[in-house]
């Protein structure tokens, strides 16, 4: 299996905060995960690694807001 690249551009994820501006967990990220390549996602605890993977996998929903573009093999994920 060849696999497909996962590309993200200007990707942000924010959560609402009562009576304040939204809190950005991810802000304006850009990157590509290439098929057949090992990619390390590194950073300290609380830096957003799991949030990024959840957004890319389509597992973030609910109160949070996703902005930007995520492409799977050059196409956007189907809605739903």
UniProtKB/TrEMBL annotation:
Top-level division of the source organism's lineage: Eukaryota
Keyword list, A-Z: Transport
MF annotations from Gene Ontology: ATP binding; ATP hydrolysis activity
Pfam families attached to this UniProt entry: ABC_tran
Coiled-coil intervals: none
Domain ABC transporter, chain residue ranges per copy: 26-73
InterPro entries: ABC_transporter-like_ATP-bd (IPR003439), P-loop_NTPase (IPR027417)
PANTHER family in the cross-refs: ATP-BINDING CASSETTE TRANSPORTER
Protein's UniProt name: ABC transporter domain-containing protein
């Amino acid at each position: 299996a060849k696999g497909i690249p996962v590309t993200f551009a200007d990707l942000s994820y924010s959560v609402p905060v009562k009576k304040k501006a939204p809190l950005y967990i991810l802000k304006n990220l850009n990157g590509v995960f290439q098929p057949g390549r090992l990619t390390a996602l590194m950073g300290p605890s609380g830096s957003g690694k799991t949030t990024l993977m959840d957004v890319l996998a389509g597992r973030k929903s609910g109160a949070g807001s996703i902005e930007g573009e995520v492409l799977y093999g050059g196409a956007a994920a189907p809605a739903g």
